[in-house]
## 1
Amino acid sequence: MSFGGPAAGSPFGGPSASATSAAAGLPFAGVPTELAEKAKEILDQEPDHPTPDIPFSQADYDRRPLTLRRFLEPHRFGLLGAIVLVVLETLALQAGPLLTQVGIDRAIVPRDVNMLWWVGLAYLASIVVNTLSSYARIAYTGRLGEKLMYELRVRVFSHFQRQSLDFFTDEKTGRLMTRMTSDIDALSVLFQDGLVSLAVQGLTLVVITVVMLFLNTTLALITLAVVMPGMLLLTVWFRGASERGYNRVRDRIADVLADLSESLAGMRVITSSNRRRHNVINHANVVGEHRDANVYAASVGAFYGPANEAIGVIGQAVLLLIGGRMVLDGTLTVGELFAFLLYLTAFFAPIQQLVQLYNAYQQGQAAMRKLRDLLLTEPSVVESPGALELPPVEGNIELRNVRFGYDPDEPVLGRDGRGLDLSIAAGETVAVVGPTGAGKSTVAKLVTRFYDPDDGVVSIDGHDLRDVTLHSLRRQLGVVPQEPFLFNGSIGDNVAFGRPDATAEEIEDACRTVGLGELIDRLPDGVDSIVHERGSSLSSGERQLLALARAFLARPRVLVLDEATSNLDLRSETIIERALDVVLEGRTAIVIAHRLATAMRADRIAVVDNGVLTELGTHDELVELGGHYADMFATWSSHA
Ligand SMILES: Nc1ncnc2c1ncn2[C@@H]1O[C@H](COP(=O)(O)OP(=O)(O)O)[C@@H](O)[C@H]1O
Ligand SMILES: [Mg+2]
């Protein structure tokens, strides 16, 4: 990161500097010199975020299923260090009751003050060791957890970017959001603290059992025989029940987010259709299901905790009874009985903790499963292993015997058994017309390789689209979709989306060419005016113009316009028609036309009906032919 030229040059700017600043949307030219040093200092203190190296080529990225082990593998040495600390921490903590036993039996009973001092000092030392190793362990695993989360977030997001279009039509946005929010959060809880605490608590149980066996084998076995069966049964039940509970919670959270994101996106329709009440009721239901799932999960834990405690208390009573008799018989010292009672209490504390950790673990595992499935989703449009860089193309497009259906059983193109054939010469503009749902947009999606045909070939300059890299193909294609999407940012940012290196003049020029001149003159900040999320601050006509400007600026060899002018009034459309003549000059273009006036200007017109190419020719030829197009033209002329 740096402040670049303007700051180093004339800080308060001459005319040239203010021009740069206007382009960047800054109120003044760069950072004043007296502040520059301070600014640099602040920037130097900012942590570095190296650009992650993300492979997008199909062959390159890591396809191995995401498992806890594989995920932690690269950090195994760090984790080993953490485990050493855990052992130290646990041993130091569990030395307490043992020291108490020594204190009672060797110092208090024989009235040895010297020994008492030593025991006290040892106790203090064990606490210091415990605290220090605990601190180091938590600090380390916290940092490691954050690092793992960062890696996972980037990995999942990159995977979204890799997916083909069908993925986003099949998956609800809210559900995908859940993966990135609550699922990753659940894992974060697990990694920050969960896994290592699990180790601490597990180790505590083992250490206590061993020490008890060492102190007095008989009593230890009796104690374990009393508490173990109940605890095991309870734990087996809890395992199943809590897993069911947490899977349910997970699914319900996804529903809540899905409903929320849909409602927010569709607010305009909801308001105008008077569905607000219905919408609230619906959301209340979804949230209610989420609550029920949580209540179930909580009630499972609520039973487990106290039931365990009860077993612990029973154990204490039995221990006091049997251990007390052993003290009277002289087979056990008072100190040992004391240590046993302390250890039994300490035995149940980690179990309570384990319950909570087990919940976190369950949630983490459920999240891991969801993320694993997500990361295993293969994009449907893939590069073939030896995909070539597509050289700069002339723009000969050919669809040969193409058949396609979004659902393989339901053909959309090539319904009559024949595939669809269409060849477009370099530099030619072909208009595609036909009724709604005929498959026009589908043709456009095949040409831009948003989907692959089920049968037949789509090629450009003789290269099957499946044999070239997606990057080199898309670089030469421009698409203006039916519903343009605008990103948060200025009008200029949006126009330059496909060509971030465009100059301010080029951006403004593109805007004026498509007829956005009036808009940017009217807006106080011109090209730098901010458009809001989903572009709702612009009219749909203006959004279409902006999308056109974006495509114009990118200057692709092949341009596909999918009803890109359908929301424009006649006057804007006339401006656009003229602009199109300029822009389409020398480029191959597929113009899916909503209006005949647009279609008529094309070199040739293709009529698509019910997934079949029924007519193809120039305007005059088709009128002559007397088919569907001639009918449409006759209707249109009679209105005009
Ligand atoms: N993503 C999709 N999934 C399933 N069916 C689709 C999808 N997109 C379009 N279709 C169906 O394919 C047919 C052709 O759609 P389309 O090519 O968009 O028609 P249009 O000629 O109006 O542009 C329609 O019946 C439509 O319902
Ligand atoms: Mg369409």
## 2
Amino acid sequence: MSVTEEIKARIDAVDIISQTVKLRRSGRTYTGLCPFHAHKNFTPSFVVWADTGTWRCFGQCNEGGDIFKFVMKRDGLDFSGALQQLAVLAGVELKPRTRDQVEQDDNLSRQRDVLQSAAVYYNHLLLNAGQAEHARQHLAGRGLGGTAVEMFELGYSLDSWDAGLKYLQSKGYTLDDLRGAGLIIEKEGGKLFDRFRDRLMIPVRDELGRMTGFQARALKPDALPKFMNSPTTALFDKGRTVFGLHLARKPMRELNEAIVVEGNLDVIAAHQAGFSNVVSSQGTALTEHQLRLIKKHAKRILLALDADEAGDKATLRGLSVAREALEREGEVGFDPHGLIKQEARLGVDIRVMTLPDGEDPDDVINRDPDEWRKRAAEAEPVVAYVMRVISRDKDLEDAKVKVEVANAVIPYIEDVSDAIERDAYRQKLARLLKVDVGVLAKRQASGVRRPEPVRRPEATTPSQPAADVRRPTSRKAEATSLETHVLGAIVREPDNLYKIDRALKDLGLGKLSNDDFAATDLQLVFDQLAGAQAQVEVEPVAYLRTHLAEPLQPVLEALTRAPVEIAGARAGKAEEALLNATLRLRRQALNVRCNEARFLLEAAREEGDAVLAERYTQEVVERTGELARVDRALAPGALNRARLGVTPGPRRV
Ligand SMILES: [Zn+2]
């Protein structure tokens, strides 16, 4: 049980609230005058439910919650304040959390400082050292000149075991500093030497231009690996950095367009040629984190893909199957399913810009800048690109081929979240295959993929956590377990919120909102989640860790660790179970609202207040309608028909 749950279990809401509000008992509920708004008449509009420990004002405030919310509002406190106060009342001890954040921050700025000094040192060597001649020639061979070197502070690391180590030590840095910054390697036996030797050094910076690490290119043809990155440190994480962003962000914003290439040297060539909205994914598959960083500055994101790599049908199909291939160094993964979903989730327009066979971006830029511009202008939406590549060199007059192409393309179309866009692609595919669009639509609706077998809603009910089984099941406990179940699934996998909202929408229901949660601590986490999704700087969970008040951290930790009861089920099943739980959560919230309104309707009729009675009647009608929709959705087989927006497979792009 979390601290907040324990407090709620120990404190009676009626006791707390009646300190402020004169409550009149009426069956299992209590009514009174709302303490949060002024009253013209004396109709009680404030209701407390003893068994759930919740309250609601049906008057002007139209607000409600648990005891935490009540104390927060009553005393003008934040959650921490309310928690302190109620913990004392409940006799629950709060443990202070350790604070090592400050120390951590100090460490990071020290690391940046070491890396910046190293960048200056390597840059000096590139410009001046006799030994760096082949590095200068390499750059010249790529058409990279002084501007590029200066703009990106390129450098050279000497062919020596400890030149860098000795230099940086002479500048006052300790071995721990150098180790922390990933600049030295320790051999067995404790011998230390420079990590980067005889390499072209490319400083990698974060969005604000602060050093995070290096990418080092081998200069001798037989030196391996060709590209060597800084190890993952507190600052450096390849998949979390967009190379060139500190220089590209302003132009990206002006053009509302970003071009993502594979290699850092391609970015440098592009910037030198004046294409300053170009960034790179650092030779890895483009991650969601990187997309979020880019999205902050441009909504239109073009992926410059090598025609022979991504354009190859085998690769296209192979990539969605053989995942491990994506992880190989220096290979850009192209995952159309992932991209299409990210597109809707992040609200961006992702397009594919195809490069000539076997040519890298810098080849095209150096050969003909106008061709680069033209290819950027002709970039296609991901689905259109996939459609073209899959159908290329196929005999589309052959009926069997038509089926094959349709089966391959339709799943991608299904991933598109916008109905109009989906329809446009369906029509495009129908024209391409010369078949009736109605047939395609039917095929799409019935699902090309094997449909999940229907299960009764009760059967997919997630099992109760063990702790709840031991406790006597009260309405409170059951409500809490559903809430934590759904919220936990979202916190652990933020993508789930998008899937839930989309499924709810398809069922004619409103998005998941904080009204679905009765517990204030969970409401607060949910509210911050929206903030976490809206920003792009950090992963949602990391965002929550820094943005939620201290006392909510244990709640968050519990949610991130909560057992995934639905794990082990196949992907489709897990989605279905989660949606099922969400619908039951919604039903629970609606039931409460509905009962509240009915109760108030009775009261208004007794008082003879026709205006109020009318208002509550309307509310009852609305809630009942919503409840019926939820019940229909929970009926056996209904979930299966709902679009879950699910495709099995990793989310990595
Ligand atoms: Zn009120």
## 3
Amino acid sequence: MDDLLRDGKDNLAMQALAPLSRTYLPWSGYAMRPSGVVKVLNEMVINQRSVVVECGAGLTTFYIAGLIQQQGKGHLYTIEHDPEWIAVVRGLLVQGGLESYVTLIHAPLVDCELSLEGTAWYDRAVIAQVMGDRAIDLLVVDGPPAYDLARQYARYPAAIYFQSQFAPDFAIVLDDIDRLGEQHILAQWQEKIPGLAVKQLAIDGGVAICSNRSGFSVS
Ligand SMILES: C[S@@+](CC[C@H](N)C(=O)[O-])C[C@H]1O[C@@H](n2cnc3c(N)ncnc32)[C@H](O)[C@@H]1O
């Protein structure tokens, strides 16, 4: 029954996403679920998020860029560790005429003192060089890969690193919230990030969305 409900939501989400792609997109188990992508885009439209940082490139990159093009405002900074995957994503963006809306940042995974349990994170020097102290109002966390126990907290540093750059009204989307590792990360963020008194917490499509303001619901 749960599977049927989930499939139904994803089918509906694919219909909602259809106007943003005219070419074939390589959906796979790596991608955020379609109903999760819809939550991200809803957050951008309904709560007016325009400067977006994304950890982990893929189909989310394509859809966020497509929405930015359609809305006529904003920019996406996508952080990715794998240069070969960046080339694939860049190809999709070029095919869709979307490359000018995205800055693809190749940041290798390195030791990071912000990490829990010493997991590697994106090279902060590379990120800082590209982004400076630019304010952001949406952080989408779907990387680095965290599917095995040894890397279950791999995504923790994202919100800690970017907290000094959050706009007065910001939101964070964390994918894979069905996993214990991500649930622990979310709890830690709520403890450690001043203002992230989760006034809006939507859990659906595999993503958790939290914000420092009540905002409008995206579910
Ligand atoms: C969970 S995926 C990120 C997916 C992306 N946000 C999306 O929704 O498509 C995490 C990492 O897996 C890798 N990855 C993504 N898609 C892949 C694919 N189809 N095959 C191999 N690796 C992939 C990339 O390095 C990416 O940063």
## 4
Amino acid sequence: MDFQLTPEQVVLRKEFVDFFEAEMKHAPEGWIGGEEEVIATDEGWAFHKEMARKLGERGWIALAWPKEYGGQERPIMDQFMFNEVRGYYRSPGIDVFGVSMLAPTLLAAGTEEQKKEHLPYIARGERAWCQGWSEPDAGSDLANLSTRAIKEGDEYVLNGQKTWTTGAHYADWCFAVVRTDTASKRSRGLSFLLIDMKSPGITIRPLPNMVGEHMFNEVYFDNVRVPVKNRIGPENQGWAVTRAAMNFERSSAEFFAGSKRLVEEVVEFCKETKRDGEPLSKNPVVRHKLAAMVTKATVGLTWARQVAWIQHKGGLAVAEASAAKVFGSESGQQLTYMGCQLLGTHAQLKRGSHWAPLHGSLETEYQRCVGLNFGGGTSEIQRNVIAWEGLKLPRG
Ligand SMILES: Cc1cc2nc3c(=O)[nH]c(=O)nc-3n(C[C@H](O)[C@H](O)[C@H](O)COP(=O)(O)OP(=O)(O)OC[C@H]3O[C@@H](n4cnc5c(N)ncnc54)[C@H](O)[C@@H]3O)c2cc1C
């Protein structure tokens, strides 16, 4: 693996840094980043859309895509570099579902018509997507899903319920996996559909998270009509498309870059804050904790780079991406807990309080970070993937 940036990449990286440094000055007050920040309020969503427009104008949303669909055909490592810098600055502007999951799925398995209909809009930051996979009885065991799509002429008629659908309340479109052969069981008889969220028969109900933020939703389909031409891949073979899309979701560069920024803020806090007349940063126990935090953030970024490097060389990095996801979820929680310990009792103060250190970000993160073990596939499921795909252990 080569860590060295080319002279052209050094210039490009500086362009990213200058852009985010300038633009993030216009973020809503107290902005701490994260998907929740984008979709929990109208103000966050408006800022996200504005950033998406600016990133789209520069061609940075689709750096590695083919030019004919709005991309720049740059190497995957340039895309990685962009993700890393954006993550560090906690910038919105990238629709993770459209850009990181659906677009690569369309590029791999979509028809020419589907690619032309959706990719340019995603590249310009104009179309928001949500992911309709989980159901009340189908999470880790996704193949147990029961939302049905029955074919009538050139349309499917959809009935059922999805849950935990992040951002459905702002999304223009949803990509969903549904059962098109009702006699089938498990992963057979499923299809991958693109659903216009303005279609009649869709009801969206909010599911507030622990912080009270409106991030998740329940989405109900009641005789919703979806054109057959909106199916990606062959009918009843949507499981293969879904599995491919799962793989595209898991590059953790932004996440680890965000962790690095958090650690830097905690280090600053420890330098500025005195206990018993001495800066916290002089205390050996505190120094050990800070060193552990820096190590975790640095190891995480190196993992993410390795995943990008393998993909740059043409590999899939299935097990490595799962390892990065597990390490990211668990180290993200550990960093938050350690950060709260170092900030002391004031870490419990909510955002908006004058006395809350680091704008109360850790109080919010403390509650948000519980979900890290679940979103994008649980840590147990990722460990299964590492065992099967990476270590070639037999399936139990
Ligand atoms: C922040 C966040 C965002 C999300 N966004 C979306 C979204 O936009 N769209 C969407 O469709 N879903 C979304 N989800 C749902 C997410 O995909 C599911 O929560 C996840 O797949 C787990 O499913 P579950 O919640 O039903 O838990 P379960 O599958 O019921 O798991 C419960 C526990 O059992 C363990 N377990 C289950 N099966 C096994 C096994 N075979 N081996 C070992 N342990 C096992 C799990 O690891 C877990 O600890 C989101 C979740 C979170 C937290």
